[in-house]
Amino acid sequence: MQKKAETSVPIHPILTERWSPRSFDPTALISTEDMTALLEAARWAASSYNFQPWRFIISRRGDETFQKICEAISGFNQVWAPNASALVAVIVEQKTEGHIYPPIALFDTGLAVSQLTIEAHHRGFIVHQMIGFDKEKMNKTFDISGQRDCIVVLAIGRQGPAENLPEGQAREREVLPRERFPLSDLIISGDL
Ligand SMILES: Cc1cc2nc3c(=O)[nH]c(=O)nc-3n(C[C@H](O)[C@H](O)[C@H](O)COP(=O)(O)O)c2cc1C
After folding, report:
1. Measured between alpha carbons, how far is 28 from 39 in angstroms, rounded to an integer?
2. What are the pLDDT digits (tens) for 68-100?
3. How many domains in the chain?
4. Which CATH number is 75's domain given?
5. Contact 131/137 with Cβ under 8 angstroms?
């Protein structure tokens, strides 16, 4: 199922075609080469002072780490995320030393995830980001502490049909149109 973004002028097809499906093909796998490419895309993101504050915990469906991440994912996400080929936990490392504005590490990490997502789409994968997980449990399970914090979990895999989702919220949302604020609402001042 496609949900192409409608734009006032044409933009790159990867950007119009990317969306966040919840129906993952439960048989699909992700190769070492594809996973490496996704992380290379993230690695080469720009960051403030080139601090590169992003870190990752990689798991594939069927391994112990995947199971542990699944256990930390909250209710609604548990309906669909376990079918992903991989779950990647994204950790941000907040350096205080030398960082004038520490929250920028979160911004930098978002840039890295965005690059990962675009490379994934280019390779025929889908990525669904999740904030819906028990952060305390995740940090404890993977011994993440101090300046490190798990901020998001990525479900990565191949898209399945909407009908594969169980009836309810997840399936309903799968077919809803994608929405955005009008561009004019985003511009505080200045002409296009
Ligand atoms: C940081 C972040 C966290 C998100 N957390 C969840 C989540 O926990 N569960 C979920 O179903 N979707 C989650 N989403 C997906 C958003 O709901 C989705 O990106 C948004 O509705 C826009 O839809 P689109 O990505 O299909 O364009 C998250 C997205 C982002 C960027």
Report:
1. 19
2. 999 999 989 999 999 999 999 999 998 766 666
3. 1
4. 3.40.109.10
5. no
Testing ligand 1's pocket by substitution, the residue of 14, 88, 131, 153 carrying the most ligand atoms inside 8 A of its CB is: 131
Q: Amino acid letter at 52?
A: Q
Quick check: 129 and 18 in contact, CB under 8 A? no
Confirm whether 110 is domain-assigned.
yes
Q: Could you report the per-residue pLDDT of 107-165, keeping only the tens digit for each?
A: 999 999 999 999 999 999 999 999 999 999 999 999 999 989 999 999 999 999 999 99
**CB-CB contact of 70 with 78 (8 Å):** yes
User: Contact 113/90 with Cβ under 8 angstroms?
Assistant: yes
Residue whose CA is closest, atom 15 of ligand 1? Answer: 129
Pocket residues: Cβ below 6 A from ligand 1:
19-20, 77, 129-132, 152, 178
Tell if the pTM clears 0.90, that is, is over it: yes
Q: Which domain holds residue 170?
A: 25-174
